[in-house]
Specification:
Blueprint (H helix, E strand, L loop, with lengths): L2 H19 L3 H17 L2 H14 L6 H14 L2 H13 L5 H14 L5 H19 L3 H12 L9 H10 L3 H29 L16 H11 L1 H15 L5 H18 L5 H34 L2 H11 L4 H15 L5 H18 L1 H8 L6 H17 L6 H9 L5 H24 L2 H16 L18 H24 L3 H5 L1
Helix pairs in contact: 1-2, 2-3, 2-14, 3-14, 4-13, 4-14, 5-6, 5-11, 6-7, 6-8, 6-10, 7-8, 7-20, 8-21, 9-17, 9-19, 10-19, 10-21, 10-22, 12-13, 14-17, 15-17, 16-17, 16-19, 19-21, 20-21
Length: 506
C-alpha cells in the first residue's frame, strides 16, 4: 500500500468514527475531503471539488428528487392514504386478519405514490393502530406489519433512493424501477402469506372486524373503493407508466406526478395554503439534505479515488479466495451492517461507490454463474442493495421505523415493536436469499421492457409514388452542359499552353 492510499484509508476510518459521534454527515465529508486531500494532493483538491460540484449540478436526474418528494407530501396532505385505508378496510372486513391485509395493501399501493418511509409508517400508525388495539389484534404482529409495510416505500418505485442509485451504478433509473417491482411485490406477498397464515392458525392474533362496525351496503363500499383507490391508481399509472414505457424521463414523470397529486388534493378539497406550505417546507428540507449529501459525497469519493485507496480496496477484495456469488454475499452483508448506523443517502453516495469497482470487475463472472446477461448484473445488484437497505430499516437496535411508530402509538412499547420487526426481518432475509438464488425475480421485467423497445422499429415508408415524374430532357441537357464544359475546359487549357496567343489575337 502506498502512502497516499494509506492516507485515504485513515480518512475513511476517521469519517466513520466522527459520524458515529454525531457530527453532520455532509459537513464531515466535505471537511475531511478538503483536509486530507490537501495533505495528499495539494491545491489540486480545490479544483477537484469544484469540478465534482459542477458535474453533480449538471445531473438532470437529480431534479426528479424534489418533485417526487413533493408528490409524496402532497398525497399525504390530501388524505389519499386515509381514503385508501378506509376503502380497503370496508371491502375486506369479514376475513380473519383483515386489518393486517389492509395495512400491507395500503402500504404497497401508497409506496407507489411516495418513496418516504417516515411518512408512510407514521400515517399507517395513526390510522391502523387504534382500530387494531380496539379489535384485539396482537401488538407485536401489528407493529411488525406497519413498520414492514411502511418500509416498502424505499424499494417500490418511485423510490427516491433508486433515482440516486442509478448514476452511482451507471444504470438506467427506468431499469432500476422495473427491477424493483418484482422484489417489492414478492416481499408484500411474503408479508401477506405470513400474516394470514398466523391469523388462520390462531384467530386471536387477527380476528375479523366486528359485525356491528362493518358497513353492509354494497353501493357504499363500491363508492368508497372508487373514490379512495381509483384516483390514486391513475396517478401512479401516469407517473410510473410514462417512465416504464419510455414516454417520459424520470424527471418529466416526477413533474407529472407532482401536478397530479396537487390536482387530486384540489379535487378532494384538501388543497389549502397551510397544507401546501407544509408540503413545500418538508420537501425543501428533505431535498436539501439529499442533494447536499450528494455533492459532498461526490467530492469525498473523488478525493478517495485520487488517493488510490479505492483501487487498493478493490484489489484486496478481488484477491480473496471467494467465488463471485460469495463475494456478492459479503458485499451485501457489509451494506446491511452499514445500514444500522447510517441512513440510505450516506450508504448509496459514500460506501456504494467503494464497492462498485468490485462488482463491476465481477460482472462477467456473475452473469455466467447466474445465467443472466452481463448488462443486467448491475441492475440485479441495485435491486439487492435496495432490499438490503430496507432490511436495515427493520433491524434493531437502530431501526428508524420503530422510532417513527413509537412517536405516534403510545400503546405499544419499544420492545413490542422490536419483537414484531424481528419477525419481518427474517422474512426480509428470506426475500434476499430468493433474489440471489433466482435473479429473474428482479431482472425479468427490465429484460422484457428492453426486448420490447428493441422490437419497435421505425416503419419504412415507400414514397416512390409521391415523387415527381422524371424530366426526359434532363439527361440530354446534362450531356450538353458536360460537353460545353469539356470544350470550354479544353479551350482554357489551350490558352494556358500558348502564352503568346493572346498577344497575337490582339
Amino acid at each position: 500500500m502506498s502512502g497516499l492510499a494509506l492516507l485515504g484509508l485513515v480518512m475513511l476510518v476517521v469519517m466513520i468514527g466522527v459520524i458515529f459521534i454525531g457530527f453532520p454527515i455532509s459537513f464531515t465529508l466535505l471537511f475531511l475531503a478538503l483536509t486530507f486531500g490537501y495533505f495528499g494532493l495539494g491545491e489540486m483538491v480545490f479544483s477537484l471539488a469544484y469540478f465534482q460540484t459542477i458535474g453533480m449540478m449538471k445531473e438532470e436526474l437529480l431534479a426528479a428528487v424534489p418533485l417526487f418528494i413533493l408528490m409524496g407530501f402532497l398525497t399525504e396532505q390530501a388524505g389519499l392514504m386515509e381514503r385508501l385505508f378506509v376503502a380497503l378496510r370496508l371491502m375486506l372486513a369479514p376475513i380473519r386478519g383483515s386489518l393486517f391485509v389492509v395495512v400491507i395493501l395500503t402500504a404497497t399501493i401508497f409506496a407507489m405514490a411516495t418513496g418516504i418511509v417516515g411518512a408512510a409508517v407514521t400515517v399507517l400508525g395513526i390510522m391502523a393502530s387504534p382500530i387494531m388495539v380496539k379489535t384485539g389484534y396482537d401488538g407485536a404482529l401489528s407493529a411488525g406489519a406497519i413498520t414492514a409495510g411502511g418500509t416498502l416505500g424505499i424499494l417500490i418505485p418511485p423510490s427516491v433512493m433508486l433515482i440516486v442509485m442509478g448514476p452511482v451504478l451507471g444504470v438506467s433509473v427506468a431499469d432500476l424501477y422495473a427491477a424493483a417491482f418484482g422484489p417489492g411485490f414478492m416481499l408484500a406477498g411474503l408479508y401477506l402469506a405470513y400474516l394470514l397464515g398466523r391469523s388462520f392458525l390462531n384467530p386471536k392474533l387477527g380476528p375479523p372486524v366486528p359485525k356491528e362496525e362493518r358497513i353492509h351496503s354494497v353501493p357504499v363500499i363500491i363508492k368508497e373503493v372508487l373514490i379512495g383507490v381509483v384516483p390514486l391508481v391513475m396517478l401512479i399509472g401516469a407517473a410510473l407508466g410514462s417512465i416504464l414505457t419510455g414516454l417520459a424521463t424520470p424527471t418529466e414523470a416526477s413533474g407529472i406526478g407532482a401536478l397530479g397529486a396537487m390536482l387530486l388534493a384540489a379535487a378532494y378539497r384538501k388543497l389549502t395554503y397551510a397544507g401546501i406550505k407544509r408540503a413545500v417546507l418538508s420537501t425543501t428540507a428533505t431535498s436539501a439534505m439529499v442533494l447536499l449529501l450528494a455533492v459532498t459525497s461526490s467530492i469525498f469519493g473523488a478525493v478517495f479515488a485520487r488517493l488510490g485507496t479505492a483501487n487498493w480496496i478493490t484489489d484486496v477484495m478481488l484477491a480473496l479466495p471467494l467465488s463471485p456469488v460469495m463475494m456478492l454475499v459479503v458485499v451485501l452483508f457489509l451494506i446491511f451492517l452499514l445500514g444500522w448506523p447510517f441512513e440510505w443517502p450516506a450508504i448509496i453516495l459514500v460506501f456504494l461507490p467503494i464497492f462498485y469497482p468490485v462488482m463491476d470487475a465481477l460482472k462477467p463472472a456473475l452473469g455466467d454463474a447466474m445465467n443472466i446477461p452481463a448488462d443486467m448484473v448491475m441492475v440485479w445488484f441495485g435491486a439487492l442493495v435496495a432490499v438490503t437497505l430496507q432490511t436495515a430499516f427493520l433491524s434493531p437496535p437502530v431501526a428508524m421505523s420503530a422510532y417513527y411508530l413509537r412517536q405516534v402509538v403510545k400503546d405499544w412499547s419499544l420492545s413490542t415493536i422490536y419483537k414484531g420487526m424481528f419477525e419481518f426481518m427474517i422474512l426480509q432475509c428470506i426475500g434476499i436469499a430468493l433474489i440471489v438464488i433466482f435473479p429473474r425475480i428482479a431482472t425479468e421485467f427490465p429484460m422484457q421492457l428492453q426486448a420490447e423497445s428493441r422490437a419497435v422499429k421505425t416503419e419504412e415508408v415507400d414514397d416512390s409514388m409521391n415523387r415527381l415524374e422524371a424530366d426526359p430532357m434532363k439527361g440530354l441537357r446534362q450531356d450538353g452542359t458536360q460537353k460545353d464544359e469539356e470544350e470550354g475546359g479544353e479551350a482554357e487549357d489551350d490558352l494556358e499552353k500558348d502564352p503568346l496567343s493572346n498577344k497575337s489575337k490582339k
